[in-house]
């Protein structure tokens, strides 16, 4: 009987390996073709590195289907909406500055340059990616780095001039006389007005995930959104060790070739509490197809979740909060802020006041409910319309 192998065959190399080893007669791809419909043509032409990768997020495809929305793709906003995203050659080549090399800026710069514009992409950090690079540090999100690499290659091929370690400034942008300027400068983590929140034991999710600070053994995570869940997972995750990753996965989730076994999760690396102000249960807005994994990981790691709190004060030894009318004390070494983000868009007002053709996309336009799906879609739409 011919056997077709499917699921998470993400690259031509994966497919080739399965076929060459005789593990299956055929391979079937689904999500990778949503992310890049030219997957097969690029592989056949020896341009596998130019394939835009599916990162297995399920956000715009499967999660959408399960709530009765049309399937799409984070990486490829044109998926299932091809007639809305038509790439036409620009009538006249413009000089365009894109400020910010996060998801929105990379998507915008690549699409604009592919249409014939001359694009300069400013990024104040030493590498492109923005929040995607921060998210890529979370266990199970390392594929974000593949996505950044794919955008980088696309930017190179489209001839975008990338200026790293260059915070674009108002006067410089004005002096270079760009025809259009795109502000894609993203977001910064929000700081709360809790007394003591400026202490050295209080850090943002960005400082933690990028390794600028090391958390202590007992940690409070403030916030209940997706980033707070990711941070909690990062904090409890044990170092991978020498165990084979596949065997580790099977042990953790409880199965092997012979069937089901009792799951054996790793011991948590830290003791973690999650707190949030809203009384809603934690994790209500996590994706349908992946949220259960996060919830289960944190439950197995003994993470305590406390909704409906009023933060009172932070000091060197931890946090005081109010719950059901009574003051409570939580002694922790580190407090990680995941309480939202604010837009970084000061350039927008300055440029538009001076009459420049200026646009804002992604978090710089609106930080509320921001995710990479929206950032990439907004960047793509603008890149196709400039
Ligand atoms: C831990 C974590 C996990 C996440 N997980 C997911 C997920 O699973 N799914 C999802 O959809 N989203 C996820 N996100 C959110 C997603 O990564 C962001 O919403 C999205 O990438 C934001 O893109 P952006 O381009 O709008 O902004 P940013 O990523 O903030 O990019 C802005 C860029 O502009 C640069 N910049 C700022 N000012 C200047 C200047 N003056 N000059 C030059 N450069 C400048 C910054 O350095 C930055 O690189 C996650 C985020 C985090 C932190
Ligand atoms: S939405 Fe995510 S999982 Fe679905 S096809 Fe696109 S990249 Fe892959």
Please, could you describe this protein's structure?
This protein has 386 residues and is of the alpha/beta class. The chain has three domains: 1-85, no CATH class; 87-190 and 341-386, Rossmann fold (3-Layer(aba) Sandwich); 191-339, FAD/NAD(P)-binding domain (3-Layer(bba) Sandwich), CATH 3.50.50. It has 14 helices and 19 strands. It has helices spanning 12-20, 31-35, 39-44, 62-65, 103-114, 131-135, 143-157, 170-175, 205-209, 226-236, 245-253, 291-300, 346-353, 372-385, and strands spanning 4-6, 26-28, 95-99, 118-123, 161-164, 180-183, 187-189, 202-204, 218-222, 255-256, 259-260, 271-275, 304-306, 310-315, 318-323, 326-331, 334-337, 341-343, 358-360. β12 (271-275), α12 (291-300) and β13 (304-306) form a beta-alpha-beta unit. α5 packs parallel to α7 (143-157) and α10 (226-236) packs across α12. The protein is globular. It starts with a strand and ends with a helix. The mean pLDDT is 96. The structure holds flavin-adenine dinucleotide and iron/sulfur cluster. The site of iron/sulfur cluster (SF4) has 14 residues, from α2.
Q: How many domains make up the 3D coordinates? A: 3
CATH architecture of the largest domain: 3-Layer(aba) Sandwich
- What's the CATH class of the largest domain, please? Alpha Beta
Residue share in helices? Answer: 25-40%
Question: Any idea what the CATH superfamily of the largest domain is called?
Answer: NAD(P)-binding Rossmann-like Domain
| Share of β-strand residues | 15-25%
Mean pLDDT value: 96
* Bound ligands: flavin-adenine dinucleotide, iron/sulfur cluster
Largest sheet: 5 strands, parallel
For the secondary structure, the number of strands is 19
Distance from N terminus to C terminus (CA atoms, Å) equals: 53 Å
Instruction: Give the overall shape, derived from the CA principal axes.
Output: globular
Task: Give the helix tally.
Answer: 14
Strand order of the largest sheet: 5-4-3-6-19
Rg over CA atoms: 23 Å
- Coarse structural class: alpha/beta
Oligomer: single chain
